[in-house]
Amino acid sequence: MTVPSPAAAPAQPALPGAARAAGAVVAALGCVLPWESLESSPPGDASSVPLDGLHGYGTLSCVAAAGALLLTAALLWRPGLDGLRGDGATSIAGLVVVAGAVLFLYAGGGYPLGSSVGGQSRVAVGPGLPVTVAGGLLLLGTGLTQLWSRRGASPPRRSAAARPPR
Fold first, then answer.
1. Residues near 73 by Cβ (< 8 Å), separated by ≥ 6?
2. Domain membership flag for residue 155
3. Is 69 within the bounds of a domain?
4. pLDDT interval class at 8 (50, 70, 90)
5. For residue 8, is it within any domain?
6. Within a domain: residue 166?
7. pLDDT confidence of 9, banded at 50, 70, 90?
């Protein structure tokens, strides 16, 4: 009986893990950046106030980004967790990050975009919102790609020695 060496087993590419980590970091970084800015221009004094994503639906997106960071750390700490559950959780985290950002944008974060009070103020999208969406889309794409690639794969076969006695 020959025992296959560990070197003969095909190596898993590191790309999905790196993409998952990059998506989680980018989504979390986007939550730290301002999501919108309130630009006011009363007569004689113009100012701009950046507003973060931790209000309204932006909170949902940022909590999902933090969850994606924790998931990535757990998968790096215990590689045995990676697989269908890890890919499914990555997809769900990416979906929630993107959904929270879209709801923030269209259902109103702090202030409706483009709104104006007496023509003296305007709300604009800040850099954090698109960065968070990009990270969420990377998470979603990585998770779905991995789930799709596992779709046709057969479950690993156990050897006769590993089977429980009957």
1. none
2. no
3. yes
4. very low
5. no
6. no
7. very low
Q: What angle do CA 133, 138, 144 make, to 5 degrees?
A: 120
Name the 3-class secondary structure at 43: coil
Tell me the pTM: 0.73
**Crossing angle for the helix pair 84-106 and 15-32, to the nearest 10 degrees:** 30
The residues pairing with 122 across neighbouring beta strands, listed in sequence order, are: 39
Which tokens is 133 given?
A: 């969406």
Torsion region of 44: left, alpha or beta (phi above 0 gives left; psi -120 to 50 gives alpha): left
Strands (E), 4-65: 36-40, 47-51
* pLDDT, tens digit (0-9, with 9 covering 90-100), for 114-147: 666 666 777 778 889 999 999 999 999 998 988 8
Q: CB pairs under 8 A, 24+ apart, for 40-45?
A: 40/120, 40/121, 40/122, 41/120, 41/121, 41/122, 42/120
Token look-up 């923030």 returns 104
**What is the span of the domain harbouring residue 72?**
16-35+49-147
pLDDT tens-digit map of 55-67:
778 888 899 999 9
- For the sheet containing 121-125, what is the strand order? 47-51, 36-40, 121-125
**Token reading at 59:** 């909170």
Q: How many domains, the chain?
A: 1
